Amino acid sequence: xxxxxxxxxxxxxxxxxxxxxxxxFYPGSHVIFxxxxxxxxxxxxDWVELYVFGITNRRFSKEQLxxxxxxxxxxxxxxxxxxxxxxxxxxxxxxxxxxxxxxxALAVSEASIYGGGxxxxxxxxxxxxxxxLESGGDLTxxxxxxxxxxxxxxxxxxxxxxxxxxxxxxxxxxxxxxxxQGPHLCLAFAIEEVLLAGRWRMKMNYAAxxxxxxxxxxxxxxxxxxxxxxxxxxxxxxxxxxxxDRPEGTLYPVSCTxxxxxxxxxxxxxxxxxx
Length: 275
Known about the structure:
This protein has three domains: 20-59, no CATH class; 61-109 and 231-247, no CATH class; 116-227, CATH 1.10.230.10. The chain contains twelve helices and three strands; from the N terminus they run H-E-E-E-H-H-H-H-H-H-H-H-H-H-H. It has helices at 7-13, 47-56, 62-73, 83-93, 98-108, 116-134, 139-150, 167-177, 183-197, 206-216, 221-227, 236-245, and strands at 23-26, 30-33, 36-37. It has a three-stranded antiparallel sheet with strand order 1-2-3, with no helix packed on it. The longest helix has 19 residues, at 116-134. The protein is globular.
């Protein structure tokens, strides 16, 4: 492909051509997955290992993979009060399909404030801050500048409670696996110390912790973002199933008297003949 091709010329160069370095399906024969035969070379991979290999084209140690499994497991909450699980459950309550319910719930899991979006912000902040510190920068200055830009620090503080019940379990596992001394995790704790000592009084939450761990095992922000895509998935089917087993429409019904309406008052509609 020409490096200078643009517009129609770029499209013309790709007419009838599909070249992929990721993989190819040969019907009735075999499947190539990032240069390897899926059913022979990669047949012994578990699903998470294959998923991460597809994202990164890298192999990870058994300790790193154990940590990745736990990152997903420790945040699989089957509580339909949570914003994304509620969508999956409402899909069951209105008798939609499980696939549509799960897909919609995963789509909103990308929320920028309390969903997947904050994970990328946290990792990006760690990477930028570490680079600044290595160049002689000051950590408190980095934190203040981040507050000035975003009014928050990705991965610190929590709407419901200033703390996170998952962190102690994830840290215990990281210590057990020997993965608790990475530079980004050390930085995450240093940031927490500054926030707690200053006027911000904010503790690290799960987003910052797993973003630091992800950076320390070598995941880039886009790789980490794609890895975290199914992180809430295991908590969604239970809510869908339970709502499907209850009478239709009985999940979170709202009475008309509970709706604050400030629009037009009640009107009488008349049907005119011929329309």
